[in-house]
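Page 37, top half.
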Amino acid sequence: MPGGIRGGSRSGSPAVPGKSSPGGSQSPTFFHAYDVRGQYPSELDSAAARALGRAIAGTFPGPTLLGWDTRADSLPFARGIELGLSLGGNPVSRLGIVPTPLVAYAAARWKVWGLCATASHNPLGYVGLKGFDPSGRILGKDWERVRRRFGKDGKDPPRSSAPSRGSPAAPMATKVEHAYLRWIGQGPRVEGTIVVDPRGGAASKLVVRALRHIGARVVPVDGEFSPDFFGRSPEPRPTDLALLGRLVRRHRGTFGATFDGDGDRVLFVDRDGIYVEPELVALLLHREEPGRDRVLVASVDVSQRLEQFARVQRCRVGTRFVIEAMRRARAEVAVEASS
C-alpha cells in the first residue's frame, strides 16, 4: 500500500506512518480508483471509518444499504462507517455479510446508495469499502469528491441528537436475498452438478442457495463463513485449483467455480477439472446474448486471441474502467484477465 504520514494526533503523540487523521493536512492514502482500501488499524481505524461515513453522507445524501464481508476487521470497520453515515443524516439498513454484487443489485433494485465493507481479494489485515449509486453503478471517480470532504465535517454532534443507527440486518437482508432469488429464478433452469468453492468468503451461503434455486445440484467446498478464509488466500489463482478440479471429477460435475473474498471475482474449471481461461468464459457468455454483433469489452491484459472470435473493445485494467467501457459500448459481457 502507498505510505502516508499522519500529521500528529489530537493528544500530541508522534506521527503514525500510513494514516491521515480526519481533518489533518495530509491527504489520505487509502482512496483508490474505485474503492477505499487500507490496513486496519494503521491506515483505516474506527475514527477514520466514522469520518469516512460522514463524508459519504455529505457527498451522497439519502438512504444507504450497508453490507460487509467475512473478515474479522470488517465488522468493526462497518460499524464505524454506519455511525458516520447516521451522524451525517443518512438512514442506514444493514445487509450483514453479503457478496459485493448483491449490494449492487440491491442498490439498483431499491434506488438507494449501497456500500460494502470489504477488502476483496487483498490479504488479511486489510479493510476496504466499495460503493454503488442508486442505479447500481460502482462508484469510481466519485470517490474523489468524498476524499475532498473527508475529515472536514467538524466534531460529531451529541449522540442524543444523532440520527438512528439504522435497522437490524435480518429484515432487509432477507428481503434483498428473496428478491434476488426471484429475479434469477426468471431465467433458465440449470441441470447437472456444480462444485463451488467460496473459500469461506462472503459468497459462501448465497451462491449455494442461488444455484440450488435454479435447479443445480451443488457440492460446496469451504461453504461456511470464515474470518480467515480457512487459512487460504482470498484471491483465487489458476495455480491453486487442483482440489476443485479433483472434486469436479469425483462428483462428475458439469463444472467448478471458486470465488474471491467478496464474491465479485470467479474462476472456473471444466468437467475434467481443467482451468478455463476468463476469455473463453466471456466468449461463451457473449455468444448466449442476443445480437451477435454486440461488443465484448476486454481489458488490455486479456489475450489478443479474443479478436478472432468477437468484436472487442479494449479498456484499461480495473473494475471502474471495465464498467465505464461497457456502458459506452452498451455491452452485456466484459472480461479482465483476473476474472
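Page 37, bottom half:
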Amino acid sequence: MRRAAAAEPTFERQNRILSTIKNIKVTHGILEGTPMRPSSLLGAAGTAVVLAAVLTTNTANAAPELPTDGRTMVLPAAPSEAGSRFGAAASPSVSPYAPSKHYGAGTVIDCPKGSLCTHVWDNSSGSYEVFFLDTCTRYWLANWEDRGGYFNNQTGDRATATYYGRNGEKLTDVPVGSKGAYNWSPVWSIRNCY
C-alpha cells in the first residue's frame, strides 16, 4: 500500500499563507492606505479562494498517522439538529475532572489503552467533546444530551463500565473492547471500572 506524501508541517504552511496574504495586501494597496478599486478587490478575493482551495486539497490528501493496534474510533457526522436549540448552550462536563478535548466530526481519535473514551456533541462549540475516563471512579455527567458514543479500551477483569440513570438505576454494562454510538440523554453517571 502506498502512502500519500507527508503533509507540510503546520507552522511552515501558516508562514506561507501569511506571506501570501501580505503580498496580496501590498500588491493591491491595502497596506499603503490607498482605496481599492472593485476590480482589485475581486482579484484579491479570487486569489484568496484559489489559495484556500490549494491548501485544503493538500491537507485532504495527506495520510493520517494512526495507531495500528485497533485503538481508534471515528467521530460521526454532526447531528442534523446541531445548533438549532434555543437558549445558551453549556459545554458537557464530568465530575470529578477527567481530561477532554474538542474534535470535529469525522476525526479519527486515538483512545489510549487503559481508557474509557466517550464523546458527546457540544452545541456551544459545534464539535464533539471527547472525555478520557482513566481513573477508576464514578463520573457524574452534566449537559450530556442526545447522541455520542464510546470506546472501552480499558484492560483487566474489573474494567467493565456501567452507565446509570437519574435515580441511580443501572442502564447498561459496557464490556472491555466494545465501542459504539449511544444516546446520552438518560445517562446521569458512568462508573468506568470496579
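Margin note: The chain has two domains: 10-61, 72-79+91-191.
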